[in-house]
Amino acid sequence: MGRDANGTFTRTHNWVTDKNNSLKITASRFDAENDDFASGLSASGETAKIVNGAYNHLGVVETTAENSISATPTVAITSYTTGQPNWWIPGFNNTGSVTLTISGLSAASVQCAGAALTSGMLLSGVPAMTVSDGSGFHLMNPMRSPADWMNTAGMQNNSVTLAKWNHESTQGALITMGASGTPQYLTASTSGYPLVTKGASVDAAFQQLGENGIGDNELTLAKLKHETVQGAIMYLGASGTPTYLAPGSSGEVLQSGGASANVSWVAAGTPSDNSITLAKMAHDVQGTLIYMDASGTPTYLAAGTSGQYLQTAGASANPAWATVSTTKNRNDVINGGYLINQENNTAATDDSYSIGDLFNYVGENAATTSLQTSSGPQGDRKFARINHDNANAQAGWVYFMTNDDVQDYIMDGKISFGFQAKTVSAKEISNLRAGILKWNSTADIITSDVVGTWASDGTDPTLATNWSYENTPSDLALTTSWQRFTIEDVTVDDDTNNIALFVWTDDGTITANDQWDITEWTVNPGSTVNDFSSPLKHDVAHQVDYFLMRYDYDSGSDEELGAAGVNTTTSTGHVGMQLRRALRVTPAVTSSASSTFRITNVYSQASNADDSISFNTPAKYSVQVVATSTTTPFTQADPARITRNATNTTYIQFDARL
């Protein structure tokens, strides 16, 4: 037979060999070759075995473990080959993962759907078929479907009926989720026992609560059924059943309906006038006050420190407790509220004293200045106004402090300065700046024009030699309402001989006739500026006289100047004037025109309008006035007096300012 037991065929004749040996193909030799084919195919029923699959049927020997299967096929194999089919009839049900060994080769795992077999996938007496992947086997006909074969995503809602569930034999059993989330049966318990949850990490169970149900204090808030809407409350309904009441509208109050009706939310009523007594108010700490905040809500102000006083900040800020300052009334600016205005220089030029007598005007151009007497920060508080006659012409005010005044500031080491300012509607200036200046050259011999060079918008002017800024000026935004601006806690150096307070316009878009106002100048030693204060007017006048003294004669014809004098010649009269108080230094004396004065002989009453007037030997407390006429109406040595000439405006001014 041409085929051996392993299925290998051996040829009887070789036609190429016969050709080489010069043998002819005879009928006998050809029949012998074909007979071998026939016998090989028919021997031992080989054709039937191929048709019936005998070569793929495994002779199975299963161990008592039921999961380790050994097989010896009719035709042994030498290796596991990809695509190789095998089938057998199991003798046991598998109870877990399975291995298969064929022809004594190594044991290989049997999988289904890419995972090891699970219990019941092989059943005794039911044929099983596997296909090899070269290293293991895949079960093609499992008797129980793997979990991965259940396409839950494709299941329709409501498609799993009660009939589809695996039936449990015990009536009353429940289905719960176990620790791994797997559904499991909970066996029915003693009649009357409730189902109690133990939280997310313990299985629920039937159990008795308390000796006679739920015990006292056993039901915590956490045990109550949670309502999904915040603000809901629980009450007892008509049958005594706990019931939820949905939240009401914001601000509503809960109203009882008595013992025969449910509670409900109702709109809160508005208390009637005089219905809220002190007893109804929430109690707080003794000394606390109630005020209205920015939104109008009543608010507590905690009690302050003993001795403090309540200070209002106006309608746009909360009141607060303030401490009484021991230097509350100190203000070293003389005439900071413009009570005195003797000179009234309204046509101010650069470096000239103007409104308020002690305030020096400095500017790029002349300006119209004025004293305003209404609509000040305190009603009729007077204030000074600058009208910028020229576009983009910066200007400001300077107040000087003497060397004597500076000593107290050197000792304290600090200076603070404040003022009130505003602009005028439709004539608006955007910004001011303010500086505290130091003079470190000869005391009281100052350069009154403090500006060396004016700068552009946003840049401080360059100061004259020996003047320097002690603070860093910055923009102070003006509005058409009065505001108080402060420059505080500025260091005063030991080499300071004089101090100047300088306020100026820092605005590069000034239109001709734009205006700004200022008043309530305040300066004092220390780290904070005091509230504005001013002595009475006659006291301010006395202080101003120390620097500037002016005599105006305009109350009547022939108003007399000073005491009587003497006619030293027939055309000359000398009259001595004793001043109201001693000036700071020997003053510079100026007066109105000579024609506004008249010299008169006391005896004869002869008089003449003066052709010239002069002032001899002025001193800090007196001066001699000399009037000379071009005619000779007088008798020498007769008493003489000098008066105002008719209704002319006549004045003599004594200037001892810095």
Q: How is this structure best summarized?
A:
With 658 residues, this protein is mainly beta.
Write structural notes for this entry.
Strands 1, 2, 3, 4, 5, 6, 7 and 8 form an eight-stranded mixed β-sheet that branches. Strands 22, 23, 26, 28, 31, 32 and 34 form a seven-stranded antiparallel β-sheet that branches. The chain has five domains: 15-51, no CATH class; 53-147, no CATH class; 289-322, no CATH class; 347-545, Sandwich (Jelly Rolls); 548-655, Immunoglobulin-like, CATH 2.60.40. It contains five helices and 45 strands. The protein has 658 residues and is mainly β. It is elongated, with a radius of gyration of 60 Å. The N and C termini lie far apart (148 Å).
| Total number of domains | 5
What is the name of the CATH architecture of the largest domain?
Sandwich
Q: Summarize the biggest pleated sheet.
A: 8 strands, mixed
Mean pLDDT: 84
Strand content: 25-35%
The oligomeric state is single chain
Shape: elongated
The CA-CA distance between the termini, in Å, is 148 Å
Q: Which stretches are poorly predicted, pLDDT < 50 over at least 5 residues?
A: none
CATH topology type of the largest domain: Jelly Rolls
Counted by DSSP, the helix tally is 5
Corresponding CATH superfamily of the largest domain = Galactose-binding domain-like
What is the C-level CATH assignment of the largest domain? Mainly Beta
Radius of gyration, in angstroms, nearest whole number: 60 Å
Number of strands: 45
Q: Percent of residues in helical segments?
A: under 10%
